[in-house]
Structures are given as structure tokens and as C-alpha cells.
Amino acid sequence: MKTTFIALAIAATAATSAAAQSRGDFTLGFGIGSVMPKSGNGVLAGGDASIGNDVRPTITAEYFIRDNLGIELLAATPFEHDINIAGVGFAGTTKHLPPTLSLNYHFPTNSAFKPYIGAGVNYTAFFQEESPLGTLELEDGFGFAVQIGMDYQLANGSALRANLRWMDIDSEATLNGASIGKAEIDPLVLNLAYVIKF
């Protein structure tokens, strides 16, 4: 009987540690995100465009609809990017918010390291465009997003997180009401965060 009890206890402990998250769990993550547009951001006004990086605070909220399977919303304070055009130089700045909704799968492991993958959609809203060349506007739009990440579980149930996303972000640009081309941003987004489970 004693041997059977010990075996059941070990099995229960292993099952608990194997589940990265349980159905009904909710997490909040507070961190810093770096948005890094790809090299070569399309052609604007006849010249090759280059869009700069930016770093801002981020927050994520994730609800687990099944064990290890969560729906996550990424939000942030506005990112700001410089826009340069070959042959023109500095062409302006823009701010944007890219809220992203993802379905994430957290791999169950028997260690403190919990890798995960996710895919979803982002909506990027551009605003406060400024340009020395005139009235610059960038069009809002939807795009796909994918991510890979890793949590390191802490003793109190919280975790340290590092993840990398790719976002499909393209925007039609106009200057003084006339089309000047498509900005192809398609950034990598590196995020480091502290995650609290409820």
C-alpha cells in the first residue's frame, strides 16, 4: 500500500510539473519590447526607404482555454520610428501601435524552462506622422504574426520570459495626398518580460 501511494504521488507530481499552464489560468506580462524593421523597407517617393528601430514598454495578457493552450493579447505604449529615403535623407517620423492577438502552445516539460510557439494577427495603427516634406500619412492595416518564446519558471509561480515575434506590417504611404509607395516594415519584435500567473 505504501509503495502504491508513493508511486501515485510521484506520478501526480510529474503530471503537475509537466503542464506548463492549466485550463483557466490567466497571466499578465510586463516587459520591454524592441521593434526592429527588416532591412530594405520598400521604395517611397522613388528612393529606397529605411525605417529605424524603437524600444518601448509592453504588456501581455493570456488566458488558457485548455492545458498549455492560451489566447494572448500583446499591447504596448506607442513605438516611434524615423523614416529615411535614399536621395532625400530624413523624410519624417511616425508612431504606431501594433496590438497582436495570438494562439500560443506552451510545451509541457519537466524543468523550469517552458518553450512555446504562437501564431495570430496584428492590427497596426499609425498616427502622428510628421515630415519636413509635407503632410505624410501611413495607412493602418492587418497582418499575420508568429512567435517563439521561452519562460523560466520561478519558485513563486511567476516567470521570466524572452520571446521573438515576426509581424507582417505593410502600409500605403501618401505625401500631400499623393501616393508615394508602400512601406514594407515587417519587423522582428524582441520582448523581455516578467510574467505573473493568477
Largest sheet: 8 strands, antiparallel, barrel
CATH architecture: Beta Barrel
Bin the strand percentage. Answer: over 45%
N- to C-terminal separation?
A: 36 Å
CATH class: Mainly Beta
Q: How large, in whole angstroms, is the Cα Rg?
A: 21 Å
Main structural class: mainly beta
Q: What is the number of helical segments per DSSP (H or I, 4+ residues)?
A: 1
Order of strands, main sheet, comes to 1-4-5-8-9-11-12-15
SSE run = HEEEEEEEEEEEEEEE
CATH topology: Porin
From the structure above, extract its key features:
disordered N terminus; mainly beta; eight-stranded antiparallel beta barrel; about 200 residues; three-stranded antiparallel sheet; Porin
Describe this structure in words.
By secondary structure, the protein is mostly beta strands. A hairpin with a 5-residue loop joins strand 11 and strand 12 (159-167). The chain has one helix spanning 2-18; strands spanning 26-36, 43-44, 47-51, 54-66, 69-76, 79-85, 89-97, 100-106, 113-130, 136-138, 141-153, 159-167, 170-175, 178-184, 188-197. It has one domain (2-197): Porin (Beta Barrel).
Compact summary:
Helices cover 9% and strands 65% of the residues. The chain has one helix at 2-18; strands at residues 26-36, 43-44, 47-51, 54-66, 69-76, 79-85, 89-97, 100-106, 113-130, 136-138, 141-153, 159-167, 170-175, 178-184, 188-197.
